[in-house]
Specification:
About 30% of the residues lie in helices and about 20% in strands. It is an alpha/beta fold. It is built from 13 helices and 21 strands.
Length: about 450
């Protein structure tokens, strides 16, 4: 998977890279992936090494805000440019640019649709650090901050040969110098307001990168850390990467919400099918349980007809209830009501129907695993050679999903977006539509 896809980088966006374990490689990868798609401006608010001026096609020295116009002119010839201040007098580094220049670069990026990447602190080539008092230097207007940690640090001793600012790391973790670093220590660095997310402006997206996952052991450590990050509200996603690979992103962990559609009246059946009992519980309860066992969060249930009864039967589950007053105008209204409730809380949503009793947590987990490895716009089961439910919708589809009308649900989006498939048993296709279906279902109890 491409890094720009995992980080959701789009033209005109500004982002800051902080932390340790691959900032230079990340900058180079962004330049490579966006070549031909949009201009890329690299710069730093601190300092960069001499050798880093080769990360872009051209290197330009800018010492005053008015000099930024030279960047505009150069971008007509070169699609990537790295902008620095003059060379430092006492060390082999290029100086960063000041706040006024950064602001003008930001304005230029918005105007011409360029991606602006700011390296906002240094790490001296280490894979783990805790920032000093003066770090990081992140502009308030960035859209995205990407904290990095190198997974090769796991299993190494906490000492000056392994980490940058070792005393600060030891103090934050409350461990002694020489302690062996474990995945739980990386979790603490990422969670702490004085650790990897120190100085991030309020309201800015944070997408963590765990780099150097070249071995199975490092990948396993990355998964432990990434799963823990799902419980940190301020962090939108965690990518496990090996930036020197052709496809550098191995997996992306982000919050995937669950939306159970349970608003209909089931007029043909003459009873609300979401409340039909199966194995001692209503069908809507089984759908909500599948979402929870599948690891979806948050999980909401969109109700219409029989709202109070549904609310009561779900009282023992950690789910939210979203009433849809327009439920009788088609399934699309339930999609919209549910989407409005979760679209800013998750990167994707799995839509489950409330009358499919053989959809379980194992299937939902398989759908989410496929999504982590692909970030496909749509992920769904393929059962008996046919598309089945439930369907995962990535955030890139949300605007189109909110425009659907009538009773079609999200089916039309399969004509617009690429889908990834999970092969599954045809049994999941069973749903309850007729009295014969109800009788057969009860024979399976």
């Amino acid at each position: 998977m491409r890094l720009t896809k995992a980080l959701r980088i789009t033209p005109g966006m500004s982002l800051a890279l902080i932390g340790a374990g691959g900032k230079s490689s990340a900058m180079a990868r962004i330049v490579t992936e966006l070549e031909g798609a949009c201009p890329v401006i690299l710069t730093t608010s601190t300092k960069i090494l001499d050798t880093q001026h080769t990360l872009a096609a051209r290197h330009i020295l800018v010492e005053a805000p008015d000099d930024v116009e030279t960047v505009r002119a150069e971008l007509r010839e070169s699609r990537s440019i790295i902008v620095t201040g003059p060379h430092a007098e006492d060390e082999p580094k290029w100086l960063g640019v000041d706040e006024g220049i950064l602001e003008r670069l930001h304005e230029l990026g918005l105007e011409i649709g360029a991606v602006l990447v700011v390296e906002a602190d240094g790490a001296r080539g280490f894979s783990l650090k805790v920032p000093a008092e003066h770090e990081p230097v992140i502009p308030e207007w960035v859209d995205l901050v990407v904290p990095l940690i190198g997974l090769d640090i796991v299993g190494k001793p906490l000492d000056a040969h392994s980490v940058h600012r070792v005393e600060r790391v030891a103090s934050l973790l409350d461990v002694g110098i020489g302690s062996i670093l474990e995945p739980r220590h990386l979790v603490e660095v990422l969670r702490s307001p004085q650790g990897a997310i120190k100085g991030v402006p309020s309201g800015v997206d944070i997408r963590v990168m765990l780099n150097k996952a070249e071995t199975p052991g490092r990948l396993a450590s990355g998964r432990v850390v990434a799963k823990a990050m799902l419980t940190v509200p301020d962090i939108q996603s965690t990518s496990i990467t090996s930036l020197h690979m052709d496809d550098p992103v191995l997996e992306v962990y982000s919050r995937v919400a669950g939306m159970i559609l349970a608003a209909g009246a089931s007029t043909r059946l003459e009873q609300p099918k979401q409340l039909i009992s199966f194995r001692g519980r209503p069908l809507v309860w089984h759908a909500a349980q599948a979402a929870l066992e599948g690891g979806l969060f948050p999980v909401i249930v969109v109700t219409g007809c029989e709202e109070e009864r549904i609310r009561r039967v779900l009282d023992d589950l950690l789910v939210g209830i979203i009433p849809n007053p327009a439920w009788d105008q088609g399934q699309s209204t339930s999609f919209k009501a549910g989407l409005d409730a979760i679209r800013h809380k998750a990167d994707a949503v799995v839509a489950l129907l409330s009358d499919m009793p053989f959809v379980d947590g194992e299937l939902v987990q398989a759908i989410v695993r496929r999504y982590r490895r692909t970030l496909a716009p749509l992920v769904a089961p393929m059962a008996g050679g046919r598309r089945a439910n439930p369907v995962l919708f990535d955030a890139v589809t949300f605007d189109d999903l909110s425009q659907i009308e009538g009773d079609q649900g999200g089916r039309g989006l399969f004509d617009q977006y690429e889908a990834s498939w999970v092969d599954w048993d045809e049994r999941i296709r069973f749903d309850v539509d007729t009295t014969e279906d109800v009788e057969w279902l009860r024979s399976q109890e």
